[in-house]
Specification:
The chain is 67% helix and 0% strand. It is mainly alpha-helical.
């Protein structure tokens, strides 16, 4: 069980990644449960983007990032593309189901900016904290776009 839930097989690692992942997932879901797209975007970038970044980075990540040799270009590109596509696809699904009443076209640039920001932060953060830093970055950039700059006309908390 430890091998399946950790990257290294070390029991102590379970206190970091999987525990943080679970706490971040539950808190984000509880805070953004209503009619805000912010939680969906943050969780899809974390779940899909960061999840696939590790897999792709380990398999194809021969070219390392200059700022963090523990991360690869392949993993970062996988995170950006997968996180963006899943976040946008889930927004389309929830809009199509009538759960969210927002513009899908109007979400394109904000979701892309959030995915880029989370990818950059993931690329420079340590492996022990990336579940937290990715989610906090996604939520922070969403807040900035919504309440700070007013460029995304959606509710932040619902």
């Amino acid at each position: 069980a430890v091998q399946a839930m950790s990257r290294s097989g070390n029991r102590r690692e379970l206190l970091y990644g999987p525990l943080q992942y679970g706490v971040v997932f539950v808190l984000t879901t509880l805070l953004f449960w209503t009619n805000s797209p912010v939680g969906i975007v943050a969780l899809m970038i974390l779940c899909g983007g960061d999840g696939l970044a590790d897999v792709i980075g380990r398999r194809f990540g021969h070219a390392r990032l200059p700022l963090n040799p523990n991360k690869s270009w392949a993993g970062s590109i996988a995170m950006l593309l997968t996180g963006f596509v899943l976040a946008y696809a889930y927004l389309a699904l929830f809009i199509g189901l009538g759960v969210l009443n927002i513009s899908l076209i109007g979400a394109f640039i904000p979701v892309l900016l959030i995915a880029i920001s989370a990818t950059v932060v993931e690329a420079v953060s340590g492996a022990d904290m990336d579940n937290i830093t990715i989610t906090v970055t996604a939520l922070g950039v969403a807040w900035l776009l919504i309440d700070g700059l007013g460029v995304w006309d959606v509710p932040f908390l619902g």
